[in-house]
Specification:
Elements (H helix, E strand, L loop, with lengths): L2 H18 L5 H22 L1 H11 L3 H25 L2 H8 L2 H13 L5 H17 L1
Helix pairs in contact: 2-4, 4-5
């Protein structure tokens, strides 16, 4: 259950972001949060420089995929997230955004050839039903 503290921290983050959006534009919140991420990432990079530097040779083979992930996850999705959070209740937005595993399962099946189990298919249906109940 190492992921439970992560979920709790993300929960705190969502509530803080929603609170800030009461008087701050989504773009401003996004930029401030991203700048803070950047400062912490640079500190983390300095601390882990040797490991990072040793791994750079592996990056060249995957750079386009890494860049694609950065554009979609770190930029486009975050801008959309803040705009959605501003105009919707935090619990609803958080619940819908937490359906990431559903998309991971479906995209892994389509793009990576991962096999889907009957339990996963049932889970996808249950999640989709739950999302419909939110509206």
């Amino acid at each position: 259950m190492e992921a439970l503290p992560v979920a709790a921290l993300w929960g705190v983050s969502v509530v803080a972001q929603k609170y800030s959006l009461g008087s701050v534009k989504p773009a401003t919140t996004f930029i401030i949060v991203t700048l803070l991420h950047t400062m912490f990432i640079l500190g983390y990079l300095a601390y882990n420089w040797k490991s990072f530097n040793d791994d750079l040779g592996n990056v060249s083979r995957r750079i386009s995929i890494i860049m694609l992930a950065g554009v979609f996850a770190s930029f486009i999705a975050n801008i959309m997230y803040y705009k959605t959070l501003q105009s919707n209740p935090a619990p609803v937005v958080s619940t819908i955004v937490s359906t990431v595993p559903l998309f991971v399962v479906m995209l892994s099946f389509i793009l990576l050839g991962t096999k889907l189990t009957q339990k996963q298919l049932i889970g996808i249906l249950v999640v989709m039903l739950g999302i419909n109940l939110l509206h």
